[in-house]
Amino acid sequence: MEEISITNKKVMMRTMFIAFLIFVMLLGRIAYLQFFQGEHLQTLAYEQQVKQRTINAKRGKMYDSSKKYMLAISCTTSTVTVNPTNISNQNKEKIARKISEIFELDYETVLGKITKRSSIETIVKKVDEELADELRKWLIENDITSGVNIDEDTKRYYPYSNLASQIIGFCGSDNQGLDGIEAKYDDILSGQNGSITKATDAAGEEIGTEGENYIAPVDGGDIVLSIDMTIQSIVEKYLEEACIDNQCTDGGNIVVMNPNTGDILAMATYPSYNLNAPYTINNDEILAQWDSLEQEEKTKSLQAMWRNKAISDTYEPGSVFKLITASAALEEGITDTDNSGEFACTGSITVAGARIKCWRYYKPHGSESLREGLMNSCNPVFIGLGQKLGVQTYYSYLRKFGLLEKTGINLSGEAKSIFIDEQKCGPVELATISFGQRFEITPIQLITAISSIANGGTLVTPRVVKATINSKTGEETELPVDTKRNTISKETSEKVLSMMESVVFEGTGKNSRVLGYRIGGKTGTSEDGVNTGKYVASFCGIAPVDNPQVVMLITLYNPTGEGGHGGGGTAAPVAGKIFSEILPYLEVEQGNKDEVEEMIETEVPNVTDMTISEAIKVLEENGFEVKINNETEELNKDEAIVTEQVPSAGIMAYQGSCVYLN
User: Fold this and answer.
1) Which residue in the list 74, 312, 319, 471 is annotated as catalytic?
2) Quick one: average pLDDT of 416-434?
3) What 3-state DSSP class applies to 422?
């Protein structure tokens, strides 16, 4: 008996020890779950018990400057999600089949989501209301009351497709801004998303009687652009025409700016793209081989298509930049507009041992005043002015005109200019800068600088957004006009404007003239990089000269058509066409009719393959002036044959315009 008692005690002790170990282990496990995994498990429990769906806010609208036209809006759509645990097994296949049928989706993919062990799965986003209503009707008819959610959503839509595409930008699938103003002002446009929350038990049944908790989304704020819908449309029409007619292999851009406020009235890049299909490439050659391209090449092509060349690409401005040199020289008092015979063009000028030619070196301009030098776009005149100004003074004006810094325009992706460091700028570098070569700036930098000449000497920050509107209160907040500093005096401004008018009335800018309006301008032709064989043709115009309200810069990249690559023959005519439409639209008063030569538009005749004598006779009979571009000074005009003419035959130009013959 005693041995049995001892044995029982041992068994009892072992049992108690094992029970104690189990108790300690359970206690440890509880402590671990409570203190180390408590927060994580609480989150999982919340996710299992609480079903939450996001309701996207409507992005704010984007208006043109008149607020008559909406350039970007958000349309109401629907997003379909499912709670797989709330759908009975007998309904899963039926629901999957119907959803895939209505929305044209892959059945197996939809079924996979519906049978997945998950709290919520997204089936399809941003579907039209008609399709969503069809699904709602089917669910009611089949008495399916839970598990399938149809929630309000929004989709970005651009009513005018390609209009101002590189400015407006576009949105991603979740309505976030990805480019242009959509990205720059995403925090204002995006608004605040709402939600639908519902508590459920392990079986997916609703807990309590409160039903769904709905938090309404807050719509995004609206934005008013400085872009004028009418002017933008006119500009895009003529830019496309110019790029096609002149076979501009690298496209082009035009910027129209109010010099007094900095408002960008139009900013167009060609080719544009469809904002409603931003991932569809706009180049037919690239599109033909799209499927065979590497992803890196596709991305590069798309980014090039989205790129706003007016703010993101730099180029050599050429002779348009002579306006800056002339302004600095006049402001410093080292010259005046009409000192007869002050300059002499011999066809070239030697600087530090380097011979730099005038564009018309084969037939030098001879004796000139500053006005005549600008009208003739004579390089030696401006090289001489640059030498007199000196590096230090010249660079001080580059800084004043904002050419060594970004303009600060309210768009993303603005590039900075490329100038040689002031300390490294020697005589040859200064000479080339003075007539617009061997440095690079952006079109927006140049038009901003020239706008300060137009407005009397004040540098104004350009802007494309001029107001925001609060979606809750409707309160409109104007963005202030940002003036930076003075560049030149009003007196100097008036002198430069006077010379620019002469350029259009008698000089290289004749093709930009418009009947009844006082227009000033400057043509430009430059190399697009060193030894590339490519050129940039440009023209900058101001109207009206006596009270400037519009500044326009046209830049055509590598024109290869029969019209040549000169700014006077390719870009200036485009300016004339645009001015002829936008000045009446803006109700700009015409100048004194007695001071404005009556201008008649005439079709340029075809004189190629004629002798020079015959060509001159035909052109003069049609009211055109003739200039012969040939390196041979003594031509036999009765024998030499015209091989090229600018503008080309068939183009409409004003009588009195110049036709250049080669």
Assistant:
1) 319
2) 96
3) helix
